[in-house]
Amino acid sequence: MNKTDNQISMPVIRRLPRYYRCLSILSENGVETVSSKELSQILNITASQVRQDLNHFGGFGLQGCGYDVPHLLDKVRELLGIYRAKRTVIYGIGNLGRAVVCHFDFIKLGFEICGLFDTNEKLVGENIKDLTILHDSTLEDFLLQNSVDAAILCIPTDSAEQVVDRLYAAGIRCFLNFSHYDITGKYPDCIVEDVHLSESILTLGFLAENL
Amino acid sequence: MNKTDNQISMPVIRRLPRYYRCLSILSENGVETVSSKELSQILNITASQVRQDLNHFGGFGLQGCGYDVPHLLDKVRELLGIYRAKRTVIYGIGNLGRAVVCHFDFIKLGFEICGLFDTNEKLVGENIKDLTILHDSTLEDFLLQNSVDAAILCIPTDSAEQVVDRLYAAGIRCFLNFSHYDITGKYPDCIVEDVHLSESILTLGFLAENL
Hints:
Order of helices and strands of chain A: HEHHEHEHEEEHEHEHEH
Number of helices of chain A: 9
Largest sheet of chain A: 7 strands, mixed
Radius of gyration of chain A: 20 Å
Helix content of chain A: 40-55%
Oligomer: homodimer
Number of strands of chain A: 9
Strand content of chain A: 15-25%
Shape of chain A: globular
Largest interface: A-B, 56 and 56 residues
């Protein structure tokens, strides 16, 4: 997925979380206004790019006055959908799934974890962060009885296809995908963010060898 | 970091792990030759881009014959430095650090985990994957007595600066960074791969709201 539409490219969209993080810190520190130049220095991009980026999202600044931090933060939060938490299941509660459940404050990121699933009988019934791990066999019932918007896949590539088939059949179209399975290859109408940690490790290896 | 030098751009480098993964699967399945067209279909890019990419890395194909899979895989492995495992410490063995230790077959990715460190006394002495978690206070001694090439930071942003200072002082210049601390901002001579999982989650939120 390279573009959301003809106007906003993925590189611009991918900077939005960085604005969010930066503005959150400024806001926590009581900063009330910020110039595009200041934002550009924090984000290590040009001031012109900051202005262009924010124009894409509606242009919240006034020339010469800078940006109102709480207002801009609010707008960025709204763009990122943080005010409308997407109800989300995590499938696969191995080492990675467990870390994902425990490590993130999902509500602050616009997601609410409502179900944890695994095929491993030994894990079923265990509580993590007020949620009980449920057995894979109850997935369809759960999705039927609960309104679920998204799924996080923390499973190996080999088992991903059949799990995605089931989630898709139950109406899930939004995925955070830690496997290497190509979801949009089969289901082009899905919104997928792939996270390929091993590719980051390999890239570091290349840079270490060749720089 | 956007470029390794004037020739090879980061987007090209970032495709190299995908070639590696794809060629590994072909090789495991006994496939001996592959055309740029076939590679392009698997990788979802154009055949011309495949040829350009591989030319960047030395051009291993013969016109009309396609690429020799074992040979190309070997070359890609070499480029990624997989044959020269970088000795690596992981700092921070909370949920995320533990998942990182357990989840990856680092040797296959060109890294060898040789030390685990944490400040939490309760974790010190625990064994994970044949390695014992060591106390933070022994970090400098360990780095002095062992040849270490890289560090993986699985700690919050707030505590990252002082840890990076210590690792840098001990000669470490290669980092996989799960924190949001800007290592190259302070140490431009470091090779850093930042992994910002929360930004992937936020990006998914934006796409889910706006597509």
